[in-house]
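User: I'll paste a sequence; please echo it back and then give the predicted structure.

Assistant: Echoing your sequence first, then the prediction.
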Amino acid sequence: MKQETKIRKRIIYILINCILVILTVISIMYIIDFFLLKKEANKESNLLNNIEINKNEIIQAEFNENSTEKIETERMIKLKTLQKENPDIIGWLEIENTNINYPVLQGTDNEYYMTHNYKKEKSKKGSIFLNKDYDWNIPSTNLLIYGHNLRNGTMFQELLKYEDEEFYKTHPIIKFTTVEDEEEYAIIAVFKSRVYYKSETNVFRYYYFVNAKTEEEYNQFIENAKKASLYNIEETAKYGDKLITLSTCSYHTEDGRFAVVGRKIEK
């Protein structure tokens, strides 16, 4: 009897130790993954800074500032260079004094760049990417841009800081650069949402809004965004204004989403 008890205790002891070892290994792997993803994201955010361009191109860009030709900034020239590596890179997104400073990709679907980086390599952090339905030939009404909400503070995690009105007041502008232009967007709404069931009616499915077919549709989007906003923002938009919507996951509810909407500032 005593022998059986000793054997049981020995087995329990071994099991507990095995579980502790497994948990320790999982924790170490999680920590390593956490920092590797952060390192990858930080490296990506510095891409433009690390691109060297011909000095003559910079001189030409500065010369264009005094002419009637389109001004081509240093950032636009660097973006062209980056596009040679992957033509799916359609722009660069930045919110000053945050970690949001990344290339923006656009694929043929809205899944690929959820799991691939700008080099088309498999990556858990994915990329910041534009909705596939945005048509540059029109162009469409709303730059609907997605990104993961990563716990290590990278990609679109800092979007959730806009829950705090004071954060909005110190970060009211979204910058978006393409090879054609450097644009700034004034934030007009910040709200929580979720992915709604098809059976649900009279709900604000902001994640479908890319191109307004009518003025009424456009105005309805603005009205719903302003109504859903977590706090009052004086800035608004009128029909014809180009919009940008940044969207990420939020854990306030099942299939939660967090969105920030801005309108283009005309120069």
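The CA atoms of residues 82 and 89 lie 7 Å apart. Strands lie at 89-94, 101-105, 128-130, 142-146, 173-177, 182-194, 243-250, 256-264.
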